[in-house]
Amino acid sequence: MEFDPSRARWKQVAAVIRQRVDDGTYPPGAQIPSVLKLQEEFGIAAATSQKVHRGLRAEGLIFTEPGVGSFVSKVLPRQSDEGSGGA
């Protein structure tokens, strides 16, 4: 993946994961890539990968079961107005 230098890398990777949820690649209940797998796939630092997971958890898009993994929430949050031009 080629990163846009004007945007935080973690936000760009989070957007890819969000898109995969939206297109059904990761349906509700599906496990998403671990922090390590995100590092490998996107060539990002551990701290960046952890920030992706934290951000997606904060949005309610994923939940984490310690020692098991991170999964797409069964009830997805409403999509934000980001990028839609608002009301």
Polypeptide structure, described:
This protein is mainly alpha-helical. Helix content is 41%, strand content 9%. It has helices at residues 9-22, 35-42, 46-59; strands at residues 62-65, 69-72. The chain has a two-stranded antiparallel ribbon. β1 (62-65) and β2 (69-72) form a beta hairpin. The radius of gyration is 13 Å and the shape is globular. It starts with 8 loop residues before the first helix and ends in a 15-residue tail after the last strand. Mean pLDDT is 90; it is low at 80-87.
Spatially, the strands of the biggest sheet line up as 1-2
Radius of gyration: 13 Å
Strand content: 5-15%
Low-confidence stretches: 80-87
Mean pLDDT: 90
Terminal CA distance reads 32 Å
Describe the sheet with the most strands: 2 strands, antiparallel
Question: Got a strand count?
Answer: 2
Number of helices: 3
Please estimate the helix content: 40-55%
The ordered string of helix (H) and strand (E) elements is HHHEE
Quick one: overall form? globular
Structural class: mainly alpha
Question: Which features would summarize this protein structure in a list?
Answer:
single chain, 87 residues, mainly alpha, two-stranded antiparallel sheet, 2 strands, 41% helix, 9% strand, disordered C terminus
